[in-house]
Design a protein that fits this description.
39% helix, globular, binds pyridoxal-5'-phosphate, seven-stranded mixed β-sheet, Aspartate Aminotransferase, domain 1, Aspartate Aminotransferase, domain 2, alpha/beta
Length: 364
């Protein structure tokens, strides 16, 4: 069986050594030494001034929304994981969808201004599949209209823009360290900001609003993460260079194998991209579903990331984002994980080619 992803697992002895230390200290959670060490190592690795390790990428978004005191309408992307929109709704905001670029997966910055009304307070955009949004254009619009910017950078660990970490952009960037992510801590996430004031606020929010044992500064939540999770992150960080290098080799290999076909693949030569996912966009939905079905017969499970387009989700969806609907209906993320072999990738591509040849010959 070849799933869309498998978690990276480091040598268990390395993890056990840190777990033994946790047992010796009997300090399991509540801002322990490993959480602090992970935060320090992440700051060094990503060249960031401020970040906070939190429970997951969803609570990271919720804390970011609360810390910026977002209310009313928030411009966002319809092409993302559901958590980008549901966090907004959960925090009492109304998503206003702006379509994605016609030839990409990210919010189309050139369409944002037309959607701004007096009730709009912010822009929440996703660097989908780790590919950066047009951060410069979005910041110009945000400054012109006095809007806050949150980047859902759940997929973007290791992505850069002009040599800078992607997490440097926006008022707050969030990330997910879920087990399926390129860098993970089993469950986990972070919030990143340049503002010491926002950092202080989010740090209290992460811990129930505590300002000392008997005082509270505002309303908080449990956004903390444990020593066991931090330990996994510390060990996985030792392998990050290997993971990033292998992902690029795998994405380049997929691209070569799929070259000159009637489909679109991401540009694996773009060094700024972290190669987190391998989305393939087919010419038609039928072709996409046909390929998915044939792969599944062979026990290979790509995923329709992201389907459906979030502006069509019945709980809050109110939009008509044509590009997003179009891409959602035709995209498949192919299996991609550290131990996926080049032979397995060849098998996957052989099935895709065979299915497309067959569907072309029967549609003539
Ligand atoms: C774009 C995006 N945002 C947010 C999340 C939520 O992260 P988590 O699963 O860590 O809560 C995910 C998770 O996959 C995601 O893909």
């Amino acid at each position: 069986m070849i799933p869309v992803t498998r978690p990276f697992l480091p040598p268990i002895e390395e993890y056990n050594t840190l777990v033994q230390n946790i047992f010796d200290r009997e300090w399991l959670t509540n801002n322990g030494p490993l959480v602090n060490d992970l935060e320090l190592q992440l700051k060094q690795r990503l060249q960031l001034d401020h970040l906070l390790y939190v429970g997951n990428g969803t609570i990271a978004l919720q804390i970011a929304i609360k810390a910026l005191n977002l209310k009313g309408k928030v411009i966002t992307t319809p092409f993302s994981y559901v958590a980008t929109s549901s966090s907004l709704v959960w925090e009492g905001c109304e998503p206003v969808y702006v379509d994605i670029e016609p030839d990409g997966f990210n919010i189309d910055a050139s369409k944002i201004e037309a959607a701004i009304t007096p009730e709009v307070t912010a822009i929440v955009a996703t660097h989908c599949f780790g590919i950066p949004c047009d951060v410069q254009a979005i910041q110009v619009i945000a400054d012109r209209h006095n809007l806050k910017v949150i980047y859902d950078a759940a997929h973007a660990f290791g992505t850069t823009v002009h040599g800078k970490s992607i997490f440097e952009f926006g008022d707050i960037s969030t990330c997910s360290f879920h087990a399926t992510k390129l860098f993970h801590t089993v469950e986990g996430g972070m919030v990143v900001t340049k503002s010491p004031d926002l950092l202080r606020r989010m740090s209290k929010m992460r811990n129930f609003g505590h300002d000392g044992p008997e005082h509270f500064d505002g309303v908080g939540i449990n956004g903390k993460n444990s020593e066991f999770h931090a330990a996994m992150g510390i060990v996985n960080l030792r392998y990050l260079d290997d993971i990033l290098e292998r992902r690029r080799a795998q994405c380049s290999f997929y691209s070569e194998l799929l070259a000159n076909m009637d489909l679109t693949v991401p540009d694996a030569t773009n060094e700024a991209w972290n190669c987190a996912y391998f989305p393939v966009v087919f010419m038609t939905e039928n072709q996409c579903l046909g390929v998915k079905a044939e792969l599944e017969k062979a026990e290979i499970f790509p995923r329709r990331y992201f389907y459906p387009s979030l502006d069509g989700v019945n709980h809050w969806g109110k939009g008509n984002c044509l590009n997003s609907h179009e891409i959602s209906s035709r995209v498949l993320c192919l299996p991609l994980y550290h131990n996926l072999s080049f032979e397995e990738m060849e098998i996957i591509v052989r099935i895709i080619k065979r299915t497309m040849r067959y569907s072309n010959s029967t549609s003539k």
